[in-house]
Every structure is written in C-alpha cells, then in structure tokens.
Amino acid sequence: MSGSSLDDTALDILFRTARTKTAWTDQPVGDDVLQALYEVLKFGPTSANCSPARFVFLRTPEAREKLKPALNPGNIDKTMTAPVTVIVAYDPQFYEKLPTLFPHADARSWFSGNPDLADETATRNGTLQGAYLMIAARALGLDCGPMSGFDRHKVDQLFLSDQGWRSNFLVNLGHGVAGDPFERSPRLSFDEACVLA
C-alpha cells in the first residue's frame, strides 16, 4: 500500500540483521514453500514487465550431486548440506512472452532483432528478480546463501540446455544454523556510496 512502511522488525528480517548463511539445519523446505516464494517474488518490478528470470530448484541429494562438479571448492560443503539450491537463470528469448506480459505495446519487436539489447535486458532484470527471490525468502522465514563461485557453462549444460536458459548465480535456501562464522563486514557510508544531485 502506497505511503505505508515496514516496522523495524521487518527491516531487520529483510536487511539489517539478516546474514548470508553457509551452514544449515536439517529442517526441510517443502515444495509448497518454494511455490509460495515464487508467488511473492514474481511481483517485483522489471522493465516492461519482461520477467526474464527462470528458477531451477534443486531439492534432492541427487540434484545437488549433479551440480557438485560445477562448484568451486569453497562452495561444495555449504551447497551439499543446503535443503535447496536455486539456479537463478534467465531466458534469452524472454521477449517471446511479452505479448502476454506487456500487451500495451509491441514490446517483442524491441528485442527480437537486437540480441545485444535482449541480453543486457535479460541479465539486468533477471538479476533483479534473483534479488527479489532472496528478499521474498527472508520474508517467508528462510535464510539465503547466494553464490557466484561456479562454472556457468557446466551448470547451463547440466541443467538448462533443454530450455535454452542461462545461469546467472546460485542461492542456497533453508534454515541456517544459529550464529555466524564472523562479524558482519562493514558497509560503505552514505557519503561514500551516494551523491545527491
């Protein structure tokens, strides 16, 4: 609702006290939770409602073992023990859905003959949707462990080639073990990161 704001508890859950998790309890994450997660994140804004992100939820030990050869060594243990690992991907042909998603204009024609613009748009907006996934997961009581240490070409070949999608990054989901391995790292101050023009 426009004009309303979240209270401090909600802001803490989503941002201020939330931490990237690398160790997980054995509490499962049901398929119903994953569906509820998507039903929230899908409403995050994208340009022309293009919605290029695609999500592959790896829920079984077999699926994670299939992923294992594509992971950097430092990401193996945290991924093998996570209840769910999400491949946040994007569809390079996202614009084929635009007649349905954005019927107000011939938005498909903006991208169908312009592969550079299509790739830039898919990457930017698919990354936004991956961030929405993490915020929605936290809002639904899950912890997140986003990762970029993996071989994208292997992941694409192992999991995405049939759909023609491309991987962007990975997110482990579940209920993190209490406590964190180290203190929260510093963040830039407003004056360091922002300009008021």
From TrEMBL:
A single MF term (Gene Ontology): oxidoreductase activity
Cofactor: FMN
Enzyme Commission number, as recorded: 1.-.-.-
UniProt-listed CDD domains: RutE-like
Top EC class for this record: oxidoreductase
Cited InterPro entries: Nitroreductase, Nitroreductase-like, Nitroreductase_HadB/RutE, RutE-like
Iron is among the record's keywords: no
Domain Nitroreductase: 23-175
Gene3D superfamilies noted in UniProt: NADH Oxidase (3.40.109.10)
Entry similarity comment: Belongs to the nitroreductase family. HadB/RutE subfamily.
NCBIfam families in alphabetical order: PRK05365.1
The protein's name: Putative NADH dehydrogenase/NAD(P)H nitroreductase SAMN05421828_10656
The species this protein was found in: Acidiphilium rubrum
Organism classification: Bacteria, Pseudomonadati, Pseudomonadota, Alphaproteobacteria, Acetobacterales
